[in-house]
Amino acid sequence: MAIVVQKYGGSSVADVAKLKQVADRVMRTRREGRDVVVVVSAMGDTTDDLLGLAKQVSANPDRRELDMLLTAGERISMALLSIAIRELGGDAVSFTGSQSGIITNDRHADARIIEVRPVRVQDELARGKIVVIAGYQGMSYRREVTTLGRGGSDTTAVAMAAALGAEYCEICSDVEGVYTADPRVVPAATRIGTLSYEETQELAESGAKVLNAQAVEFAKEKGIAIYARATSSRLPGADPSSDGTVVRRHPPRMPGTVVGVASERDVLLIEMEREGSSRTHAASDPRSPERPALQMLEELDEHHVAGKQLHVSGDRLTLVVSRENLHEEPRVRAALAARFGDAVRIADTIGALSVVGAGINASFENVRRGSAALAARGIAVDGVATSSFRITWMIDRARLDDAVRLLHGTFIEGQETPVL
Ligand code: ADP
Ligand code: ASP
Ligand code: MG
Questions:
Q1: Which atom belonging to ligand 2 lies closest to the Cα atom of 212?
Q2: Does ligand 2 have an atom closer than 6 angstroms to the CB of 152?
Q3: Which protein residue's CA is at the shortest distance from atom 15 of ligand 1?
Q4: How far apart, in whole angstroms, are the C-alpha atoms of residue 263 and residue 392?
Q5: pTM here?
Q6: Packed helices 63-87 and 46-57: angle between N→C axes, nearest 10 degrees
């Protein structure tokens, strides 16, 4: 029998009534003659609430203990959903990440899946059961409980789909798929029927929450098709792109086409210049002119801080750090201040605004158009970074939503803007 993996996000299991609707959708899928594996997130805002509790106890909660705490959220959902399915006459069994055979590295609060050994899941499927799995969690090779970073239930679902050779992996949420921008911010945003893995990964890394970036990376590696759709939608029919978004290998669009606009609000911009406390140290070692930058990266690694858009040029380092999985910020700030003194500056007023599309930097036209539109609206730009799929402008966080609507107008709705 073909296996399908369905993932239901926090808003889809936020209360008992919604859990019952999910149970009903699972049962309908089962009745279509498929083996069903369901991955669930924590109910509603449970993960945020648990994090809030930990922060009340300590400004720098220990990452291992955070994992023990946060995994409880998904455990509640898995058991309740299993009970709800049984109530509808289905034969369900729930498993934690560790029981499902999800093996990760030992990086607490932001672990990566290194292997999936779904023996117990396969055994239960063979017995005719519906298997319900707690998302967002695994067990490290040291047998410690880990979590996969915020939004990590998507990763659980894709990894499980790959390990089980599933027909498809459905990511069910409160939106009808991936849109050209967050529909809560841009009313004119429209659903995108089909996306390539690369486009989706860039959108996710730029802050589009609807799919987790690591999950898309996994799907690309294993060739798994992802269907993103609303939990309230019907089951996929012959044309799965008719009501959601299908993410799969996709022939390139017209090069240079912008497919979406995304933003990330909760970032820190770390800047370091070779001055202050570490200058004498570095200058005394002619073999390592870049040594302060390397020391900075070493310090960040020691605190498990992941960064993006690293730029080192001469005496200057800049780096953007997403706050999503940074749970010990006061401790990290204190460590950087102790080691680098005035040489390091951390800006906490900046947001990242990105447009995404294959080949969008083949010429500088898109950078010029976006920059001109921002300038015309009086939005100051602190920095620009590009890759072959993305242009990112660092701007004042307070102007972010306005800027997203502006660039959506410019690049997707085709509104006229001056080109510098
Ligand atoms: P879930 O709890 O189901 O995992 P998330 O909150 O993680 O759901 O993701 C869904 C949310 O992502 C939507 O409510 C929407 O506001 C937001 N979002 C951001 N960017 C996009 C986009 N480009 N397309 C669709 N939704 C987006
Ligand atoms: N519950 C976790 C979070 O809020 C994982 C997820 O929702 O995917 O980040
Ligand atoms: Mg999510």
A1: 8
A2: yes
A3: 182
A4: 9
A5: 0.93
A6: 150
Separation of 74 CA from ligand 1 center, angstroms?
19
d(CA 320, CA 308): 5
Nearest listed ligand to the Cα of residue 14: 1
- CA-to-CA dists, residue 43 to 18, 38, 154, 263, angstroms: 10, 15, 15, 25
Please say whether the beta carbons of 212 and 155 come within 8 A. yes
Q: How deeply is 78 buried, as exposed, middle or buried, from its count of CB atoms within 10 A (0-12, 13-18, 19+)?
A: buried
C-beta of 178 in contact with ligand 1 (< 6 A): yes
Q: Which amino acid is at 169?
A: C
The CA distance from 290 to 274, in Å, is 9
Which residues touch 195 (CB under 8 Å, ≥6 apart)?
A: 178, 203, 245, 246, 247, 250, 259
Calculate mean pLDDT across residues 281-309: 75
pLDDT tens readout for residues 113-151: 999 999 999 999 999 999 999 999 999 999 999 999 999
